[in-house]
Write a structure and sequence with these properties.
TIM Barrel, 9 helices, 40% helix, two-stranded parallel sheet, 263 residues
Length: 263
């Protein structure tokens, strides 16, 4: 596993929703938990780094210590309403991975047996984050399992979302996070062909040792079940946390199977 960024003491963390609402699964991180995590980072001298800094080589080799990358998949409105102001308080910025078909809509791609679908940010909210130093990447057009698509469909999801984001936000889009954490060597190859320079996954993967290592960069998700001790362990890049993440990521495929069976 290529864990270069973690070995340089730059943890890459992934969130989904920052909300006190009860949700299906473990993606809803309570606001008070998130505040404590950001407060801990600030009090311990951490500073946020954007994924684009990695792309441009904008971090001096001696300056890796006490840096952290905060990423948010899906662009849930709770990130704008709750995470954004907390991060501003501490001088932090993040990276938002956006699903272009669902901007300003409900998260209808997500399996939710209790029917509680949450809203996604609209373009004005996303633009406000960009204006305040946030980075934006793609999370595809429609949040489908990219490994199940035809070559034409796959390239359309990858290239299409990139073009939409670049047109709407007037910025270059160089990064992607794969929906449901579903990817394979073909997805990585097509992401490269579509113009992405970095791709982010949850957990680790043997694909990192192949021809497109920078299109499968490991992250650790932060969830409802993560108390401060676990948060600190993930910051340290504990290998056991990657093992746990790989197990959690397998459950996301349950959403894919559910949709195939019932929709």
């Amino acid at each position: 596993m290529d864990m270069t960024l973690f070995l340089r003491n730059i943890p890459i963390l992934a969130y989904h929703k920052i909300t006190n609402k009860i949700g299906w699964g473990i993606n809803n991180v309570p606001v008070r938990f998130f505040y404590r995590q950001m407060h801990y980072l600030h009090e311990n001298g951490f500073r946020t780094v954007s994924v684009n800094d990695f792309l441009s080589g904008g971090i001096a080799e001696h300056a890796y210590r006490k840096k952290v990358v905060l990423t948010f998949d899906d662009a849930d409105v709770s990130v704008y309403e709750n995470a954004f102001p907390i991060m501003q308080k501490f001088g932090f910025t993040g990276t938002l991975f956006v699903i272009t078909d669902f901007v300003g809509k409900k998260d209808m791609w997500d399996v939710n047996p209790v029917g509680r679908h949450s809203s996604q940010m609209d373009w004005l909210q996303i633009k406000e984050l960009v204006a305040n130093g946030w980075t934006v990447g793609s999370h595809s057009i429609s949040h489908r399992d990219l490994t199940s698509l035809t070559t034409t469909e796959l390239y359309g999801e990858l290239k299409g979302s990139k073009e939409i984001l670049e047109k709407e936000l007037n910025i270059g889009i160089k990064t992607i996070s794969y929906p449901f954490n579903r990817f394979n060597s073909n997805v990585l190859e097509k992401a490269f062909e579509a113009g992405y320079e970095k791709g982010f996954i949850l957990g680790s993967s043997h694909f990192q040792s192949e021809t497109k290592p920078r299109l499968a960069i490991p992250r650790l998700g932060i969830y409802l079940i993560d108390f401060m001790r676990t948060f600190q362990s993930k910051l340290a890049g504990n290998k056991f946390e990657f093992f746990k993440q790989n197990i959690i990521s397998r459950f996301s495929y349950g959403s894919v199977l559910w949709k195939k069976i019932f929709f």
